[in-house]
């Protein structure tokens, strides 16, 4: 039988392969993400970037009332200048950020083995060619974007580790 719409055939074939390998949506009913929803105590923010980072983590995972897990995720953010004019004025900056994160049982001490761990990195940039106010607004926006990028990457890795957490 000839199928003139090859995309439909490919989608149906991919769906069949995924169903055969035990694929299940992480956010679906009974999905692995339920093991983390409202179950992760967040790090205490110390800076504006930390606050934005923790806020995004809580948006994605929910606030924890009686957490089963504790996330340790210190942020390291640096700012580098990228573009300069002939006069030596910097016209572009880049924020580089990283976090070596660990997910621990809520009551575990600092030396306890991690249930999941990893390292995430990201970067954003902004221009400083506008007014002082515009440059400051662009700087704050770049910091917020970087905090969101790092938090989203950690949550993605936590969701990938979630099936193993349910069994633990």
- The name of the CATH superfamily reads Lipoprotein like domain
The number of strands is 5
Please, how many domains? 1
Which structural class do you get from the secondary structure elements?
alpha+beta
End-to-end distance? 48 Å
Q: In terms of per-residue confidence, which ranges show pLDDT below 50 for 5 or more consecutive residues?
A: none
Assigned CATH class:
Alpha Beta
| Coarse shape | globular
User: Given the structure, what is the number of helices?
Assistant: 3
Name the features.
single chain, 168 residues, alpha+beta, Double Stranded RNA Binding Domain, five-stranded mixed sheet
SSE order and pairing:
Elements: H1 6-20, E1 40-41, H2 48-61, E2 69-72, E3 75-84, E4 90-105, E5 116-127, H3 132-167
Parallel strand pairs: 1-2
Antiparallel strand pairs: 2-4, 3-4, 4-5
What does this molecule look like?
- This protein has 168 residues and is of the alpha+beta class.
- The chain has a single domain (32-167), classed as Lipoprotein like domain (Double Stranded RNA Binding Domain, 2-Layer Sandwich), CATH 3.30.160.
- The chain has helices at residues 6-20, 48-61, 132-167, and strands at residues 40-41, 69-72, 75-84, 90-105, 116-127.
Summary, kept brief:
This protein has 168 residues and is of the alpha+beta class. The chain has helices at 6-20, 48-61, 132-167, and strands at residues 40-41, 69-72, 75-84, 90-105, 116-127.
């Amino acid at each position: 039988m000839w199928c003139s719409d090859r995309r439909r055939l490919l989608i149906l074939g991919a769906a069949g392969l995924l169903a055969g390998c035990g694929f299940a949506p992480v956010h679906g009913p009974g999905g692995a993400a339920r093991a983390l929803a409202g179950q992760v105590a967040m790090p205490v923010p110390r800076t504006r970037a930390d606050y934005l980072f923790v806020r995004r983590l809580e948006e994605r995972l929910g606030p924890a009332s009686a957490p089963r897990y504790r996330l340790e995720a210190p942020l390291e953010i640096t700012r580098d200048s990228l573009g300069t004019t002939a006069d030596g004025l910097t016209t572009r900056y880049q924020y580089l950020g990283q976090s070596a994160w660990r997910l621990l049982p809520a009551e575990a001490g600092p030396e306890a083995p991690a249930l999941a761990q990893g390292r995430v990195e990201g970067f954003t940039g902004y221009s400083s060619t506008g007014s002082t106010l515009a440059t400051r607004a662009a700087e704050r926006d770049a910091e917020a974007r970087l905090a969101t990028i790092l938090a989203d990457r950690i949550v993605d890795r936590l969701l990938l580790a979630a099936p193993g957490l349910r069994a633990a």
